[in-house]
Amino acid sequence: SRGVKPRPRKSFLPHLLVRLLPPISAMADPGDTATPAAAVSSPWDDVPDDFFLSASISPPTPPPAPAPIPSTSPPAPSALRSASLPVTSIPPASASASFSGSLHRAIAPQPIHPSHSLPAFSAASLPAVADVCPPPPGPHHSNSLSEFAASASQSRVHRPPPRAAVRADRPPPLELRPRPPRESQSGIALCALTCCAAPGAGTSTHLWAAGEAGVRVWDVADAFRSPTSPRRWGDEASAPFRESRKTPPAICLVADPGRGLVWSGHTNGRIMGWRADPGPEAGERIGWDAHRGPVFAMVISPYGDLWSGSEGGIIKVWNGEAIEKSLALEREEKCKVSLLVEGSFIDLWTMVSDGGACPLPSVDVKLLLSDNSRSKVWSAGYLSFALWDSRTKELLKVVNVDGQVDTRFDVLSAQDPYGYETKQNLFSSPKKEKARSPVNFFQRSRNALMGAADAVRRVAAKAGFGDDTRRIEALVMSMDGMIWTGSVNGSVAQWDGSGNRLQEFQHHSSSVQSILNFGTRLWVGYMDGNIQLLDLDGNLLGGWIAHSSPILSMAVGSSYIFTLAGHGGVRGWNLSSPGPADSILRSELTEKEISYKNIEYMKVLVCSWNVGQEKASYESLRAWLKFPTQEVGVVVVGLQEVEMGAGFLAMSAAKETVGLEGSPNGEWWLDAIGQILKGHSFERVGSRQMAGLLTAVWVRTNLKHFVSDIDNAAVACGLGRAIGNK
Which residues contact 271 (CB under 8 A, 6 or more apart)? Predict the structure, then answer.
């Protein structure tokens, strides 16, 4: 090529799942008509001997066995869910009519790109093992070896993802919101779920979700219906939902069925109340500034009070009667509503403090739980609990994760000269003058020292210097009155209603993220995406991999347990799972798999060049890429010696330690190649440079929405395993 003299070097190729082809001499010549196999006409006859990449991408219409199938690349993903299908497994309209009406929803066919009408491959001939696919069809590739997966490493990153639409290792789920692309979740990620029955809607259940852009709600009865309006990127295949106006990020939710409201707590310290009917699109019914910091947790007491927790151990109780009066006012009197509620709170931190010391730890209140049967409220920080009387607001007990009573609580309780009824009057109204506790000099000094020690513990807990593996992440009450907690080390502990630790269970090593009780079962969600079911004695009943990321929140509604994953996907699991119904549903879906699943093939163009720190001309690049046939869907480029020199290698190694990469020459090559590929409808989806090595991937524009969750990594294998020239 003009301007650059390529030098033979060791091949620099990305790790791709490819098919191994036999030697050329063992394959039929596509132009040879002497053999019967070559005489058979096949659209694959003119395909050169190179690698193929297979993908399970479903078309919108079912293919007849010998006829060409429609393209895998419509302009936008179809909006569809089934009881077990991933986003890419889309049943056609004809299949949904002949199958169970509760599993599939019909969709209209969408236009396809003419360059991707490739030969059909019947799903009926798939092998039993879902991770192995046969060679491409046609006589030209009849002797190709089957795809295989290496077993040199047990790491999940080296395993190909299962292609089966129905997985045998878990119950078939309801895909309420299939996993969205990671890049589409910026500014709209979800973090919490709750279910609330809509008043006057019979048995209809609404699933609410809190997110960075506000709140949204799904009607579970609409789970199998198509959306009536276009959805944003990432929600095309989601069930129909309604959403609020854009608000500060919401981080917690609590249902208030008695008032027909759903409360949301926000990062700016604001609490908003939304009518369960008509929903969030009508705007918040009530809202006020509750805290200076984020609202981490909320709960409704049996007396109708709203408890909210924030950073620094602050807990406020909002009077239920004031909330009722505010709801009775007209919407036009919003200012008066806010003032009425804001002036009715009780600051529990201030109420239990005495002489500058407080028996509560100064850590964020992450969890709140109402024990209605005993009229108690539990609040949880990092490594401790506090028990409150929900009627008198009296602090009953402060215990750590081992069940030991905090000594600070005993000391301050003994020296407290005021009753809780008196303190409630002192600290519930800002107009009254706050009385000062008559403590002597030594008591004040001791309290100051205890407060300083608590501040050190708080900083240590936040920085991870303490026993972080025992940090409390989940809190729930079971139907028999027991309290269950989940910790970072994967343990699940059982407590009685008085705050006494009874026993601990360890069924999984991953961190517990959420716990939910329904009937005689406990559902436990873990950081690694696993779900486990326990009985009320702590015995393990079953479990499966529910998601590929942490299970942030769970909620029960209708006949499902809904789980929210860290990547934004929402799935519903039948309350009877695992059970006999799972096997029946799985077998039915497997039998109908041919109606909604296809395998298509696309060509991958892989290019490697040692550029010797030079820049190529435009003509050289065009001659190198040889652009190309329409079957090519992915272009992968690997360059070596983009930059050279000991100084640059040392500087690159230093930049890698702080997460920086790239160079002027590297940017030039990316831009130059990108300009040529742009004329052939390609877009770059990812790149990575380490010193003089550069890898980049481009895909066709009509395939880009199938590509998401881009990740890359670089391992320096040069001098001292620190220099990135290898």
Answer: 263, 264, 265, 287, 288, 290, 295, 298, 306, 308, 318
pLDDT number for residue 135 = 62
Which is it for strands 570-574 and 512-518: parallel, antiparallel or unpaired?
A: unpaired
Residues 619, 506 share a domain: no
3-class DSSP assignment, residue 225: coil
Residue 650, pLDDT above cutoff 60: yes
Domain identity same for 613 and 668: yes
**Within 10 A of 475 (CB to CB), how many other CB atoms are there?**
21
State how far the Cα of 688 lies from the Cα of 685, in Å rounded to an integer: 11
Domain CATH code at residue 372: 2.130.10.10
Residues 473, 587: one domain?
yes
Specify whether the CB–CB gap between 308 and 323 falls below 8 A: no
Q: What does residue 639 show for φ and ψ, rounded to 5 degrees?
A: -120, 145
How far is C-alpha 573 from the chain's CA centre?
A: 16
Q: Residue 445: phi, psi to the nearest 5?
A: -65, -45
Q: Is residue 674 part of a domain?
A: yes
Which range in 152-166, 272-286, 532-546 is most confidently predicted, on average pLDDT?
Answer: 532-546
Verify that 638 and 704 share a domain, yes or no.
yes
Strands of 693-700's sheet, edge to edge? 52-55, 600-610, 632-640, 693-700, 682-690
**Residues spanned by the domain of 613:** 603-725
> Which residue(s) pair with 211 in the sheet?
190, 214
Number of domains in the chain: 2
Summarised one tens digit per residue, pLDDT across range 300-356 is 999 999 999 999 899 999 999 988 888 887 666 666 667 788 888 899 988 887 765
Name which of 7-21, 166-180, 238-252 the model is least confident about: 7-21
Q: What is the CA radius of gyration of the chain?
A: 31
Contact 503, 493 (CB under 8 A): yes
Distance CA 680, CA 290 (A): 56
- pTM for the model: 0.69
- Average pLDDT taken over every residue of the chain: 74
Please report whether residue 528 resides in a domain.
yes
Based on the domain organization, do 661 and 545 belong to the same domain? no
Q: Which two tokens stand for residue 8?
A: 């033979």
pLDDT of 175 above 50:
yes
Q: What is the pLDDT of residue 569?
A: 93
Amino acid letter, residue 379: S
Domain end, chosen from 536, 567, 594, is at 594
Of the two residues 541 and 658, the one the predictor is more confident about is 541
Whether the predicted pLDDT of 412 surpasses 80 = no
Residue 214: both structure tokens together: 């506000």
Evaluate whether residue 159 is within a structural domain. Answer: no
Q: 154 lies in a domain?
A: no
The b/e string for 371-409 (b: 16+ C-beta within 10 A; e otherwise) is beeeebbbbbbbbbbbbbebeebbbebbbebeeeebebb
**Are residues 271 and 367 located together in one domain of the fold?**
yes
Separation between Cα atoms, residue 560 and residue 549, nearest integer Å: 20
What percent helix, strand, coil does the chain show, rounded to 5? 25, 25, 50
CA distance 104 to 225: 9
Q: Are residues 589 and 634 in the same domain?
A: no
In whole angstroms, give the CA distance from residue 606 to residue 627: 12
Lowest mean pLDDT among 218-232, 631-645, 660-674, 690-704: 218-232
d(CA 315, CA 368): 10
Q: How confident is the model at residue 201 (pLDDT cuts 50, 70, 90)?
A: low
Whether residue 647 sits in one domain with residue 589? no
Matching residue, tokens 């009849």: 142
CB atoms within 10 A of CB 614: 12
pLDDT of residue 159: 58
For the four alpha carbons of 628, 634, 639 and 642, in that order, the dihedral sign comes to positive
Measure the CA–CA gap between 445 and 458, rounded to whole angstroms: 20
**d(C-alpha 411, C-alpha 389), whole Å:** 20
Higher pLDDT, 377 or 438: 377
